[in-house]
Amino acid sequence: MERDQTEELRALQDTLYFIGGKWRIPVINSLCNGNRRFREIERSIPGITTRMLSKELKDMELNKLLKRTVYPETPVLIEYEPTEYCRTFGNIIQEMISWGREHRRVIVEDR
To answer: Which domain holds residue 74?
Structure first.
């Protein structure tokens, strides 16, 4: 099977755009680990600001990666959950975690 390098490059660029930035993958990981409320997500990601988390969640909702549910209570309760589409990225994140662990091990052993 002949590979289409132009198409592959476009697909890689789309993926890098999706995961680009410092916070997207940690937010997805937090959501997939069961954190549903804004403050839970925020507490699970050291260093993220409230403003950045808000921006990431809005962008992810626009890109059909999470579902935002508002419960009409007092005070208003908002929960976020990853969509099935978002969960398809879970295996990639797990592979990235495994690769990162192995890479750290290789680097530390060489010192």
So the answer is: 5-110
